[in-house]
Write a structure and sequence with these properties.
Layout (H helix, E strand, L loop, with lengths): L13 E11 L4 E6 L4 H4 L5 E5 L10 E10 L2 E6 L5 H5 L5 E5 L11 H4 L3 E4 L2 E11 L4 E7 L2 E6 L7 E3 L4 E3 L21 H12 L5
């Protein structure tokens, strides 16, 4: 007799593929912001998504299933099981959609565990390492640990143009203000020009008789 028993399946890594942004119409439709290069594969009828919502939401810990995907004026709109009216749709606004990792990894898609620990380069120089990835409703942020603390970097292509897993690096082109050198503490003790001038004038001034 053959043994049909199987080992317990291991938890899968998950990939963030979209965010619910706005109720559309009165029948439960919701506009989506897509974070996937393969919506035709990810967003098909029957696709199930884990929800990332606040702990106080009635949807916390639940998943939803897509029943239909449409496009209106170039924007994707989804219909989901159990979301039959605008009130239900509005209760899902800002929810982030996650799917289990599959064998076909998308281009420019990484998992948190792959990014943590990568060296962060600016102009070819190392400025820190990735400590964690924060998934926020508006966008993802890379928390970069530097010698002076932590810097939050928007994880968008304009600021993070390259992730090289083989080299173990992330290249950043940050806007002004990010990764600026923090002045040494003793610099604050140096007198300014006005202070020096005042001291000099006081030294040169004749004493009152």
């Amino acid at each position: 007799m053959s043994d049909n028993s199987t080992e317990p399946s291991q938890p899968k890594q998950q990939l963030r593929v979209g965010r619910l942004t706005k109720a559309h119409g009165l029948k439960g439709a919701i506009k989506l912001e897509l974070y996937t290069d393969d919506p035709e594969h990810r967003f098909v009828p029957g696709a199930e998504f884990s929800l990332q919502v606040p702990t106080g939401s009635k949807w916390h810990g639940k998943s939803i299933t897509l029943t239909e995907m449409r496009w209106y004026n170039g924007h994707p709109v989804g219909f989901f099981e159990g979301v039959a009216d605008r009130t239900e749709a509005e209760s899902l606004i800002k929810a982030i959609l996650w799917v289990d990792q599959d064998d076909a990894v998308e281009e420019d898609a990484w998992y948190d565990h792959q990014l943590i620990g990568l060296r962060v380069l600016r102009d070819g120089l190392e400025v820190g390492t990735v400590a964690r990835v924060d998934h926020l409703p508006a966008q993802d942020l890379l928390a970069v640990k530097t010698g002076h603390g932590e810097v939050l970097v928007p994880f968008v292509s304009a600021i993070v143009p390259e992730v090289d897993l083989k080299a173990g690096t992330v290249t950043v082109t940050p806007p002004p203000g990010l990764f600026e050198d923090i002045p040494d503490d003793d610099e604050g003790d140096a007198p300014d020009e006005a202070g020096e001038a005042s001291s000099a004038e006081s030294a040169d001034a004749p004493e009152a008789e």
